[in-house]
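Worked example 3 (structure in, sequence out).
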């Protein structure tokens, strides 16, 4: 068996890179089933603009942020999750647009960071929640970012907790494969400043990456697209050399226009990046975090809670100061 695995790996390495990409469990391409990306009509930026039409910042925020296709995050606040994802995917489908959804409810979420702690009450509760999440989308086309930070947030966890988390992620991918055949799922792989490419490749593989469309980078962070592309390619190099396959990746460009200053929690002087699009050095450049939404009680968002929309932060991010 070992000899046959080594032989298979060697054969894959001998192929052109494009031929060595591991196929997703989903054969359908949701980008060809839709006409562009869906703009969330109820994003925090949209709601703020609607509530503050006379504010001097409203016009810029509306033009530069509120009308850019951005992911909607789903968690315990979303109510009955299958109903919520079904309504969102259904609205996008009626508009012939591709929706971006973030699943953010894993048990022991942000266990080591703490700013966004919470999540499902147990692994079994999460399994039920994510199954309903996938079932709500059903056959509609969609893109899902699966549990941001989940594979980077290992610093304070025991091996048993890590194993438990990886089983939850593998189970989630199985549910999307089973219930949402027209959804591309990207496992979150952190950012270039978190784990080494070799470490992240191992974590992705052990959590079931073969079942996913690919992996996501820079969610809620600030590293440049070039830095993320180099990191994503390095992760793929590790995947290819160690496991015999590669995967496409996407980059969150919502707040990376000025790059990172080394701080991840509401740093000053950041700027919005390239709007959501296909290509651009990755399979897609996506706005996954809404610019202006707080990372937590820190930095220029002192006194705020994670996810709270801060109009002054959003306004300054448009201009990069």
């Amino acid at each position: 068996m070992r000899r046959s695995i080594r032989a298979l790996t060697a054969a894959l390495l001998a192929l052109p890179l494009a031929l060595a990409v591991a196929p997703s469990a989903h054969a359908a391409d949701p980008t060809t089933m839709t006409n562009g990306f869906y703009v969330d009509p109820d994003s925090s930026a949209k709601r703020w603009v609607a509530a503050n039409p006379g504010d001097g910042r409203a016009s810029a925020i509306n033009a530069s942020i509120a009308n850019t296709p951005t992911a909607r995050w789903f968690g315990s606040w979303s109510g009955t999750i299958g109903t919520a994802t079904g309504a969102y995917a259904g609205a996008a489908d009626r508009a012939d647009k591709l929706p971006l959804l973030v699943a953010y409810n894993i048990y022991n979420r942000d266990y080591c960071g703490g700013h966004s702690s919470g999540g499902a009450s147990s692994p079994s509760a999460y399994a039920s929640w994510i199954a309903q999440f996938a079932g709500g989308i059903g056959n509609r086309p969609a893109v899902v970012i699966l549990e941001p930070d989940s594979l980077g947030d290992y610093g304070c966890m025991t091996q048993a907790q890590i194993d438990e988390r990886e089983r939850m992620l593998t189970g989630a991918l199985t549910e999307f494969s089973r219930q949402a055949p027209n959804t591309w799922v990207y496992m979150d792989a952190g950012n270039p400043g978190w784990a080494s490419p070799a470490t992240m490749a191992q974590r992705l593989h052990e959590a079931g990456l073969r079942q996913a469309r690919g992996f996501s980078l820079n969610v809620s962070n600030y590293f440049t697209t070039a830095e993320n592309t180099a990191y994503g390619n390095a992760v793929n190099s590790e995947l290819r050399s160690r496991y015999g396959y590669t995967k496409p990746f996407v980059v969150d460009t919502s707040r990376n226009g000025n790059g990172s200053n080394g701080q991840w929690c509401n740093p000053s002087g950041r700027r919005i990046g390239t709007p959501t699009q296909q290509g651009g050095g990755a399979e897609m450049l996506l706005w996954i975090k809404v610019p202006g939404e707080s990372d937590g009680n820190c930095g220029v968002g002192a006194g705020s809670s994670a996810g709270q929309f801060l109009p002054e932060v959003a306004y300054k991010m448009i201009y990069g100061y």
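Notes: The chain is about 35% helix and 10% strand. The domain at 51-319 is CATH 3.20.20.40 (TIM Barrel).
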